[in-house]
TrEMBL record:
SUPFAM superfamilies, sorted: Flavoproteins
Domain Flavodoxin-like fold: 1-213
GO molecular function, one term: oxidoreductase activity
Documented EC number(s): 1.-.-.-
Lipid metabolism recorded as keyword: no
Protein name: NAD(P)H-dependent oxidoreductase
Family assignment from sequence similarity: Belongs to the NAD(P)H dehydrogenase (quinone) family.
Pfam assignment, any one: Flavodoxin_2
UniProt KW keywords: Oxidoreductase
InterPro entries per record: Flavodoxin_fold, Flavoprotein-like_sf, NAD(P)H_dehydrogenase_qn
Top-level division of the source organism's lineage: Bacteria
Length: 259
């Protein structure tokens, strides 16, 4: 594998960062290539603005159009281009972060905001049909992605009946709205609950589980999301046909195994 490990934790001595180091070492020891974007160490700028696109201050800034123009004309900010080169090189993205307020840290969200611009990660149409290539098709099709997430919550509270909700629901914006939207297949996430109560023994167990997940990643079945450009959705309304998953509502509709 060619792995881009995208990390977002401010403390190198944390459990999160220790697992990052363990994971990268494991991959390299087994012959895989790894590039790392450690956003806090890089002091990554997460804020989108006109400077990203060499955009004239005299003109209204339309983010999607300006980003697309800059991408196609080679005028994107150098830090954005460098990250896009890493994504292009990789066949696998490991995105690691602590779950803060039910989502990614702002620095990581800002990485996606700035790097996944139109033309690079989305905004491509099928020349034969004119359909937008997204949700299972797109510029990043052929790559896989996996989230590695630490959380303070106890294991029982993150699940279908847990007060914190099911992990796949919490990560749906990342899994479905970012990875799958751009065409990447999505491996089941790796969760480390009770992260602030870790002991040396539980760390060793967690590290062992992470090593196994990483080495099995090429053969791990992805989450069974429905492709947008499949017979499952009405092509005009982009809604699921009523005969599919008739007893299911919400996010679960968009999995092919929904009842």
């Amino acid at each position: 594998m060619k792995v881009l490990w995208l990390a977002a934790h401010p403390e190198e001595r944390s459990l999160n960062s220790s697992l990052k180091n363990e994971g990268i070492r494991t991959l390299r020891d087994h012959g895989h290539e790894v590039q790392v974007s450690d956003l806090y160490a890089m002091k990554w700028n997460p804020v989108v603005d006109a400077d990203d696109y060499d955009h004239s201050p005299t003109e209204r800034l339309h983010i999607s159009n300006a980003a697309h123009h800059a991408y196609t004309h080679g005028t994107l900010s150098p830090d954005i281009r460098a990250e896009q080169e890493k994504v292009t090189w990789a066949d696998t993205l490991v995105v690691q972060f602590p779950l803060w307020w039910y989502g990614m840290p702002a620095i990581l969200k800002g990485w996606f905001d700035r790097v996944f611009v139109r033309g690079f990660a989305y905004g491509i149409d099928d020349p034969a049909t004119g359909q937008a290539l997204r949700y299972g098709d797109g510029p990043l099709t052929g790559k896989r992605a996996m989230a590695v997430v630490t959380a303070g919550a106890r294991p029982s509270s993150i699940g279908p009946r847990g007060v914190n909700g099911d992990l796949n629901d919490l990560l749906f914006p990342l899994h479905h709205g970012t990875f799958w939207y751009t065409g990447m297949s999505v491996a089941p996430p790796f969760l480390v609950p009770s992260a602030d109560r870790t002991t040396p023994a539980t760390f060793e167990d967690t590290a062992a589980r992470l090593r196994t997940r990483l080495l099995e990643l090429p053969s791990t079945p992805p989450l069974p999301f429905r492709r947008q450009n499949s017979p499952d959705y009405d092509p005009e309304t982009l809604t699921l046909h009523p005969d599919l998953a008739p007893h299911t509502t919400g996010l679960a509709l968009h999995y092919t195994d929904a009842p």
